[in-house]
Design brief:
- By secondary structure, this protein is mainly alpha-helical.
- The protein has 10 helices and no strands.
- Helix 1 (about 5-40) crosses helix 4 (about 65-80), helix 1 crosses helix 6 and helix 5 runs antiparallel to helix 10.
C-alpha cells in the first residue's frame, strides 16, 4: 500500500486553493461578459481580459467556452434557488415568504448581469439549462409548492395556485434586473440605489401579502 506523502497532500491542497481563487475571479467575469454579448458573441479572450488573467487559465480550468458557459449558468441557478431554503413546513409563512422575496429582490439588484444572462438563455429556448429546469428546478418548486399547500390547508394562507405563485414572484422580482434600464427611465431613480431597492421591495412584499391573504 502506497503511503501518502505530506508534501503531496500539501501540494494538492495548495493547487485546490489556487483553483478556487482563480475560479472565483473567472466566473463573475464570465457572467458579465456573457450577459453583455451572449454565448455566441462572447469570446474567451474577452472573459480573460475581464478577469485580468491569461486566456490559458480559462482553458486549463474549464476546457472551452461551452463548459464555462454551463458552469456560469449552473452557479446562477444555484444562487437563484438558494433563497427557497427558508420555505420549510415548520416556518412561519409570512416570515419565510418575506425572506424569500427579499433575497430574490436583493439578487436582482446586486447581480443584474446574472439575471439578464439567465433570462436570455430562457428566451433562446434554454438550450444549455433545459435539463436542469426539468429536473432540479421542477423538483424544488414541487417540494416548496407542497409546503405552501400545507399552509393553505391549515388556513395560514389564502387558497391559490402554489406553482404559479412562484412564477409570479419570479416575474415581480427579476424584472428589476432584466428591465432595469426601462424602470430607471420611467421612475427617474438610480436603479442601483438603496432607495430604489427599498421601494421595490416594499411594493413587491405588499403585493405578495395581498395575494396570500397576509395583509
Amino acid at each position: 500500500m502506497n503511503e501518502v506523502q505530506p508534501g503531496n497532500v500539501a501540494d494538492t491542497a495548495e493547487k485546490g486553493r489556487i483553483r478556487q481563487d482563480n475560479e472565483a475571479i473567472i466566473l463573475p467575469a464570465a457572467e458579465r461578459v456573457f450577459a453583455r454579448f451572449g454565448f455566441r458573441g462572447a469570446t474567451m479572450q474577452q472573459i480573460a481580459d475581464a478577469a485580468a488573467l491569461p486566456k490559458a487559465n480559462l482553458h486549463y480550468y474549464f476546457g472551452n467556452k461551452q463548459n464555462l458557459y454551463l458552469r456560469v449558468l449552473e452557479n446562477i441557478l444555484d444562487d437563484w434557488l438558494s433563497p427557497l431554503e427558508g420555505i420549510c413546513a415548520q416556518a412561519d409563512p409570512k416570515t419565510a415568504i418575506a425572506g424569500y422575496v427579499r433575497r430574490k429582490i436583493s439578487f436582482s439588484f446586486n447581480r443584474p448581469a446574472a439575471s439578464k444572462l439567465f433570462a436570455n438563455e430562457i428566451l433562446q429556448g434554454a438550450p444549455v439549462v433545459h435539463p436542469l429546469l426539468k429536473t432540479d428546478l421542477r423538483q424544488l418548486v414541487a417540494e416548496k409548492a407542497r409546503i405552501l399547500d400545507g399552509w393553505i390547508a391549515q388556513g395560514q394562507l389564502r387558497a391559490l395556485d402554489t406553482t404559479h405563485f412562484f412564477f409570479t414572484v419570479w416575474s415581480m422580482t427579476q424584472t428589476y434586473a432584466d428591465f432595469d434600464i426601462q424602470i430607471a427611465a420611467v421612475s427617474g431613480e438610480d436603479p442601483a440605489s438603496e432607495a430604489a431597492q427599498a421601494r421595490a421591495t416594499a411594493h413587491v412584499l405588499s403585493s405578495v401579502w395581498r395575494m396570500c391573504g397576509l395583509e
